[in-house]
TrEMBL record:
This is Cysteine hydrolase. Residues 19-207 form the Isochorismatase-like domain. It comes from the Bacteria. Keywords: Hydrolase, Plasmid. Residues 75-94 are annotated as: Disordered.
C-alpha cells in the first residue's frame, strides 16, 4: 500500500495492483496548433505546457505496473454519435466534423484525433474513444476496469473543468476512489482549473482527492 500523506483533503492510500492511471484527452486536437482548441480561439500552449509533466506521471505508472487508460474525445465519421446539441455549439467555423489542418475535427482516425506523440499509448494499454465529455458515458470503460479489479483511479489530462472533472465525477459515482494530479491537468482558462481543484477536494473530498506530482512520486 502507498499513502500520499499531503494529498488534499486527507491522505490518499492506494495499492498499485488495483490502481489505474486515466489520461483524459491528451489529443493533438486540443493541444497542438491547428486543432479544435485553437480553432475555438484558445491558447493551446497552456495545455501543451503540461505534456512533460504528464509524461513523467505516465513513465511512473508504467514502471509501477498500474493499468494505463488513455481517452480520446471522438466521434464516428458519420457523426451518428454526435447529437446536434453538441455539434452546433461552439464557433460556426469550427464544428465537430468540419475539415481542419489536422483532418476532420474530433473524428476517429483523423490525425488531430491522435494522442500527442510524447504520450502515445503502448500495446496493452486501454484506449477509450468517448463521444461525451465523461469517460464512462457510452463507452466500455466501466466494464474494462471492473474486469481488471481496478478500484483506484489517478487522473490527469485536459481540460480540467470539462472532460477531466466530468470523468472524475462519473467515476466517483461508480464507487472509484479518485485522485487528480494537480500539475498534470490544465485548462484554456487557468482560473477554471484552480476552481475545479478546489471543488474536488472541498467538503471532505466530495469528488475525490488532489495531490502534486512530487508528492505522489515521493510517496511511491
Ligand atoms: C472539451 C475536453 N473541453 N477534453 N473537451 O471540449 O475537455
Amino acid at each position: 500500500m502507498t499513502s500520499i500523506a499531503c494529498a488534499k483533503p486527507a491522505p490518499f492510500t492506494f495499492d498499485a495492483r488495483t490502481t489505474a492511471l486515466v489520461l483524459i484527452d491528451m489529443q493533438r486536437d486540443f493541444i497542438e496548433p491547428g486543432g479544435f482548441g485553437e480553432a475555438l480561439g484558445n491558447d493551446v500552449s497552456l495545455l501543451a505546457g503540461i505534456v512533460p509533466t504528464v509524461a513523467r506521471l505516465l513513465a511512473h505508472a508504467r514502471a509501477a505496473g498500474w493499468q494505463v487508460v488513455h481517452t480520446r474525445e471522438s466521434h464516428a465519421p458519420d457523426l451518428s454519435d454526435c447529437p446536434p446539441a453538441k455539434r452546433l455549439r461552439g464557433t460556426p467555423n469550427a464544428r465537430i466534423g468540419d475539415a481542419g489542418p489536422m483532418g476532420r475535427i474530433l473524428i476517429r482516425g483523423e490525425p488531430g484525433n491522435d494522442i500527442v506523440e510524447a504520450l502515445a499509448p503502448l500495446e496493452g494499454e486501454l484506449v477509450i474513444d468517448k463521444p461525451g465529455k465523461g469517460a464512462f458515458y457510452a463507452t466500455r470503460l466501466g466494464e474494462e476496469l471492473a474486469q481488471r479489479g481496478v478500484t483506484h483511479l489517478v487522473f490527469a489530462g485536459v481540460t480540467t473543468e470539462v472532460c477531466v472533472q466530468t470523468s472524475m465525477r462519473e467515476a466517483n459515482d461508480r464507487g472509484f476512489e479518485c485522485l487528480l494530479v494537480e500539475e498534470a491537468t490544465a485548462s484554456y482558462i487557468p482560473a477554471f482549473r484552480d476552481a475545479t481543484l478546489s471543488m474536488i477536494h472541498s467538503q471532505g473530498g466530495i469528488v475525490g482527492w488532489t495531490a502534486t506530482l512530487d508528492a505522489l512520486l515521493e510517496a511511491v
